[in-house]
Design goal:
Structural class: mainly alpha
Oligomer: single chain
Helix content: over 70%
Distance between the termini: 109 Å
Strand content: under 5%
Number of helices: 19
């Protein structure tokens, strides 16, 4: 009631003000809108008309402003609704992908992209469905289109490198990861994948630089340090002459037990008529850590003029490492093959190992004793020959993954660790 009364009073005052204005300004005035059109009206009427025109202009401008705000709000609401629907569709598509319905998941991802502008994460999610189906070629095409539309986004580049890697296109994968690394120079995931691709491409120089960054990020990780030494070793093997020797020496200075570099240094010395230096280098290494490949290399170097060195060396090693079963078996094998069957027999009797290799060594000893005149049945001899023909099986084992190998290699073919096949040999 009060508001109505107040509004009525205001209207009365406005009517009074207008009447007073017209009464106090009865004189006419000429108002021209051009050279040929003019009108004469009382001054009060002209003033009222001017006020009305101004109020109308203000109303029109306010209406335009509100219209623009309403249109903007409508567009925002439409985008919000589209984004909400796209988010819901993407969530459902991920659920379908987890359940294995990759075709329907991609269809939903495509609809979501039409409703709302796709982002890098959506493209990567769709590419993952192709990865799960074992179709990296389709994932690569999708990611290439995404890179054209969205630019060099690190997520897209990382997924694109993954597709290229699965297609054995390591050069393109390295290029993509290099661009991703520009945005995230210390990302462990990017550095790890880039390192693996450089390893696969045998670009050991660049791989060493990347691996150095990983070692700085993870200074206490022994596997990362092993990969760094491995990259340096492979780089050395691609070099020649003094550079190769310098690189190998730097590896053994960093890790005196890196047997692959020690073995190559010894072989290089032996082929350049420095056999005694090679022998001393290997003897120091095995006294520090007796490894099968270095001992076998020593046996080859010691044959001939230095044949007496190996029994003495094995005696030192057995005294220094009495609990090393693999060392005892290596010594027994050496003694059995060099007409010292009694010594080999004593070592085998002390070992607690019972495998095909030990059985074969026993048969070799018995067969050797039979050839020297000892009494051995013909059945035992034939069984020994059969066992020797079959071979003792794996003679090296990886210290990291325990995978066996009949031949020594600088790097384990199962876990990829360098110089890990030296520590367990029979």
């Amino acid at each position: 009631m009060f508001r109505r009364t107040l509004l009525f009073v205001v209207l009365l005052l406005m009517a009074g003000a207008i009447a007073a204005l017209l009464h106090l300004n009865p004189d006419k005035a000429r108002f021209s809108l051009g050279t040929e059109w003019a009108v004469e009206l009382p001054v009060g009427v002209l003033v009222l008309l001017s006020l009305c025109a101004g109020a109308l202009a203000i109303f029109v401008l306010a209406l335009i402003h509100e219209g623009r705000n309403a249109l903007r709000a409508w567009r925002v609401n439409r985008e919000v609704r589209a984004a909400a629907w796209s988010l819901s569709a993407r969530s459902e598509a991920r659920s379908l992908a987890l359940s294995g319905d990759y075709a329907r998941a991609r269809a939903l991802f495509t609809k979501a992209a039409k409703k709302h502008e796709p982002d890098p994460g959506q493209v990567v999610d769709m590419a993952d469905t192709w990865f799960e189906e074992g179709r990296p070629d389709q994932a690569r095409k999708l990611l290439e289109d995404g890179l054209k539309d969205l630019g060099n986004d690190p997520l897209l580049l990382f997924s694109y490198a993954r597709a290229c890697s699965l297609l054995d296109d390591h050069t393109t994968a390295v290029s993509a990861l290099g661009r991703a690394r520009a945005s995230y120079p210390d990302s462990p995931r990017v550095l790890e994948m880039l390192r693996d691709e450089l390893f696969a491409a045998a670009d050991w120089d660049a791989a060493e630089q990347v691996q150095q960054r990983l070692v700085r990020i993870r200074p206490d990780d022994d596997d990362e340090r092993n990969r760094l030494l491995g990259a340096r070793f492979e780089k050395a093997m691609q070099s020649q002459g003094e550079l190769r020797e310098a690189l190998l020496r730097s590896i053994t200075d960093s890790d005196p037990d890196f047997s692959a570099a020690l073995l190559e240094r010894a072989r290089a010395l032996a082929t350049s008529d420095h056999q005694r230096q090679a022998t001393r280098l290997l003897e120091k290494a095995v006294l520090r850590k007796p490894t099968a490949i270095l001992l076998r290399e020593l046996e080859l170097l010691a044959d001939g003029d230095q044949a007496g060195r190996m029994p003495k060396l094995y005696g030192k090693l057995l005294a220094r490492y009495p609990d090393e079963q693999s060392l005892a078996l290596l010594a027994a094998r050496y003694y059995a093959g060099h007409s010292q069957a009694d010594t080999a027999r004593e070592l085998l009797e002390k070992t607690a190992v019972d495998n095909d290799t030990v059985k074969t060594l026993w048969l070799q000893i018995e067969t050797g004793s039979s050839a020297s005149g000892n009494a051995v049945s013909s059945d035992a001899g034939s069984n020994g020959n059969a066992a020797i023909a079959d071979g003792p099986g794996p003679v090296f084992a990886c210290s990291a993954c325990s995978a066996g190998s009949s031949e020594w290699t600088p790097r384990c073919s199962c876990c990829g660790r360098w110089s890990s096949l030296d520590t367990a040999a029979t």
